[in-house]
UniProtKB/TrEMBL annotation:
Keywords: DNA recombination, DNA-binding. One of its GO terms (molecular function) is DNA binding. The keyword DNA-binding applies. SMART domains: Resolvase (SM00857). The keyword Disulfide bond does not apply. InterPro entries: Resolv_N, Resolvase-like_N_sf, SSR_resolvase. PANTHER family: DNA-INVERTASE FROM LAMBDOID PROPHAGE, SERINE RECOMBINASE PINE-RELATED. Gene3D superfamilies: Resolvase, N-terminal catalytic domain. Pfam families: Resolvase. Residues 13-120 form the Resolvase/invertase-type recombinase catalytic domain. This is Resolvase/invertase-type recombinase catalytic domain-containing protein.
Length: 120
């Protein structure tokens, strides 16, 4: 069962991050719509922004990914929602850096395909 996260008296600010491979461009809109629908089903969540890009998961210089990192560091979001872990990046070291950054800034990562928050 999914653990509920809630801020006292405030909705959780959620950021959608969607990345698809260069040959999967048609999946981008579908993935974003799925995540928007899920956010709507969560009464304590509020969509703040959507960052999306068509890029290789091994490319660590992705523009929208870097905006995501900045928002995490500036603590302007509470939850990042992705379709699956590979949507973020395919580099294991980079993924672990991101997980540590999320934890350091008290931002939760929600994996839509698992319908649950990421757990180490």
């Amino acid at each position: 069962m999914m653990k509920k996260y809630k801020k006292r008296g405030k909705k959780m600010k959620v950021l959608i991050y969607s990345r698809v491979a260069l040959n999967d461009n048609n999946k981008l809109d579908k993935n974003i719509e799925e995540m928007k629908e899920y956010i709507k089903s969560q009464p304590d969540w509020e969509l703040k922004d959507v960052y999306s890009e068509v890029a290789s998961g091994l490319d660590n210089s992705k523009t929208e990914y870097n905006k995501l990192i900045k928002d995490i560091e500036e603590k302007v979001i509470d939850i990042v929602i992705v379709k699956n872990e590979s949507s973020l990046c395919r580099d294991v070291v980079e993924f672990l850096k991101l997980i540590n950054l999320l934890e350091k800034n008290n931002v939760k990562l929600f994996i839509l395909d698992n319908k649950d928050f990421y757990k180490k």
